[in-house]
Write a structure and sequence with these properties.
This protein is an alpha/beta fold. The chain is built from 10 helices and 16 strands. Helix 1 crosses helix 7 and helix 8 packs across helix 10. The mean pLDDT is 93.
Length: 347
């Protein structure tokens, strides 16, 4: 199979490219080499350095391509209103240009890197009133050290549940809004161009090759950097926030499964899947697991601090990906996170 991978030099795109080539596929590598993601690094050999928004650059690159694996994106929360145009331009316009170019070239199969952030908050259940929507957590509540979400009927603390792909989508940041827009553009393209799309909603990805101390770094990398500076990892809130951390090698495997499925399957629609480990873990436990694999003997410091707009819990259900893609993660957080403490990172 000949696969064009956008963002091929990035953390996830690089892992996907390596996995594709390892099984004998031909990869057309495309990456803009954004300084936010790559610093001043040179593009790897064979990489076509181009901006996905450049409509004139695509015709020759897509010749003979069986499928596109679209990983390129501006990431990070996008916490300022001024960030909105950057995310809309790189992620939304970029995706629209890629889709139009694919249609012109007759390429009708796409795997799209989406994200858990399209869900916003996760699923919450009240013991008396069932699944409930959640209200924004109030500043006074957070200042008082109450970090939980409460039932809108009885004010009881809500328990988290697994988020399925059919859940309500509620993006809470510029990045999240842009990822959902990518899914909408791809779904419209699939209907209009008789194409097929698999959107992979990544949860918290970590592993070798992760960028160090950039907007593209995740919390596990930040915990590791603190330990390497001789400082205890700083854990916000009470450390009880629940997430799913999935190893980049598993994310690459999910992409291969999605490419096989989208090439073999029907057309005219988008199918979305959670890509997760299936093993929930608290942020406090993430800090402890990274510290366990480090030479440092520092215990994480739970600060009680918070960031407005952060979600309390979001944990994915892995079942649909298992049933329909045949994907099950192989690296448990209890193994992968301590190993991550000494894994090679990008500069």
């Amino acid at each position: 199979m000949r696969v064009l991978v956008t963002g091929s030099a990035g953390f996830i795109g690089g892992a996907v490219t390596t996995a594709l080539e390892a099984r004998g596929d031909e990869v057309v590598r495309v990456d803009l080499m954004l300084p936010e993601a790559h610093g001043g690094a040179e593009a790897p050999g064979g990489t076509h350095r181009l901006d996905v928004r450049d409509a004139d650059a695509w015709r020759d690159l897509l010749a003979g391509v069986d499928a596109v694996c679209h990983q390129a994106a501006l990431v990070g929360a996008g916490v300022r209103v001024a960030d909105l145009p950057h995310y809309a331009s790189h992620n939304d316009v970029g995706t629209a240009v890629v889709l139009a170019a694919m249609h012109e070239a007759g390429v009708a199969r796409l795997v799209l890197a989406s994200s858990m952030v399209v869900y916003g908050e996760g699923r919450y259940d009240c013991p008396d009133h069932g699944t409930r929507p959640v209200r924004p957590r109030r500043v006074a509540q957070l200042d008082a050290g109450d970090f939980e979400n409460h039932c809108d009927v009885c004010d009881a603390v809500l328990a988290w549940g697994l988020v399925e792909e059919s859940a309500r989508l509620d993006p809470r940041s510029a990045y999240a809004a842009s990822k959902l827009a990518q899914e909408h553009y791809a779904a419209a393209w699939a209907r209009q161009a008789d194409g097929a799309v698999v959107a992979l909603r990544y949860h918290n990805v970590y592993g070798p090759g992760m960028p160090r101390d950039t907007p593209y770094s995740g919390v596990a990398a930040m915990f590791r950097s603190s330990l390497e500076r001789g400082q205890p990892p700083q854990v916000f809130e009470d450390g009880g926030q629940v997430r799913d951390f999935v190893h980049v090698a598993d994310v690459a495997r999910a992409n291969l499964a999605a490419l096989d499925a989208v090439v073999a399957g029907g057309t005219g629609s988008l199918a979305a899947y959670n890509v997760c480990s299936g093993t929930p873990v608290t942020i406090g436990e993430v800090a402890r697991l990274v510290a366990r694999g480090s030479a440092a003997t520092l215990e994480p410091e739970v600060t009680g601090g918070y960031r407005l707009g952060d979600v309390r819990h979001v944990v994915a259900s892995p079942e649909l990906a298992r049933q329909e893609l045949g994907f099950t993660a192989q690296v448990a957080p209890g193994v992968g996170l301590p190993e991550f403490a000494t894994a090679p990172l990008r500069g």
